[in-house]
Amino acid sequence: MSKDKSMDENNAISISSEAAYSRVMSLIGQKKKSRSFMTLLINKMEQYRQSKKYGWSRSWNKENLVTFQSYKLKIAEDEELLSMAKEVLNVQFAEMPADAKTFYQDMISDRKKLMGYVFVQDSIYKGEQFESITISLGRINNKQFRDRLDIILDCPIDKDASSDLIRIRVYIDPYRANDSAPLYTAASEDVHASSQNLFALATAFTWVWKDDQSRIWSHWVQNYIDYFGKRMWDLKKSYFYSGESTQRNICNSDYFIV
């Protein structure tokens, strides 16, 4: 039997087919390779999943950033956050096309299938440093695929502290077999009160949930993926919990949870 070069540690890993993807997944599952090779395998696997829109994989929550906290939403318990997210879309992005609006309204209302996470990140966007929080919603579409909707709230970093919320980004991406681009993307720096309120609630959860194992999302593959890890920079003042030495930044909002 000929040797599969895509599986050879001395050759570049290439995943260009479902067969190669399955072989790489099998190797990863064995957990028997060196750390460096496991890192290479898992990151190549993630790139392939991203290109196919398998699971939660999308480019915008993986590139030029590090996710240092991940939390699971409990759809039945997090009605307030979901309602706030919907209000941000209705108000902050009121001009979005009708097909994108119909999609997000349908998905957020589909509580039996709806899933969600909160990702806390350090990021570089257009050459500037930010700390950000992502409200990430999705649902299963055709078994291995996911419909996706992300609202990302960005705060610039000034020296060793974060500043006020200045930008909201949205990515609306229902799974479509023949279209790799999101249905709708937009960024707004005209920060409405609805976005400030969502930001205040979501950031508060990073302090409330920091020790709640039912909320913390983790998986062993995170140890090998380059967009998960420790903070990119050490802040003395942050909106997000990141250690006992971090002073909590207060949100510019009438809505606040202690």
Q: What is the element layout, followed by pairings?
A:
Layout: H1 18-30, H2 35-52, E1 65-72, H3 79-92, H4 98-109, E2 115-125, E3 128-141, E4 145-158, E5 161-162, E6 167-173, E7 184-188, H5 193-208, E8 237-238, E9 247-248
Parallel strand pairs: 8-9
Antiparallel strand pairs: 1-2, 2-3, 3-4, 4-5, 4-6, 6-7
The parts where pLDDT drops under 50 for at least 5 residues are 1-12
Beginning-to-end CA distance, first to last residue = 64 Å
Shape: globular
Rg over alpha carbons: 19 Å
SSE series: HHEHHEEEEEEHEE
Largest sheet: 7 strands, antiparallel
Strand tally, please? 9
Question: Given the helix and strand composition, which structural class is it?
Answer: alpha+beta
Strand fraction equals: 25-35%
Q: Give the integer mean of the pLDDT values.
A: 85
Number of helices: 5
Helical residues, percent = 25-40%
Number of domains: 2
Name the features.
258 residues; alpha+beta; 2 domains; 7-stranded antiparallel β-sheet; two-stranded parallel sheet; 5 helices; 9 strands; 25% strand; disordered N terminus
Protein architecture, described:
It is a single chain. Strands 1, 2, 3, 4, 5, 6 and 7 form a 7-stranded antiparallel beta sheet that branches. This protein has a two-stranded parallel sheet with strand order 8-9. Helix 1 packs antiparallel against helix 2, helix 3 packs antiparallel against helix 4 and helix 3 (79-92) packs antiparallel against helix 5 (193-208). It is built from 5 helices and 9 strands. The chain folds into 2 domains: 11-52, no CATH class; 59-248, no CATH class. It is α+β, with helices and mostly antiparallel strands. The relative contact order is 0.15.
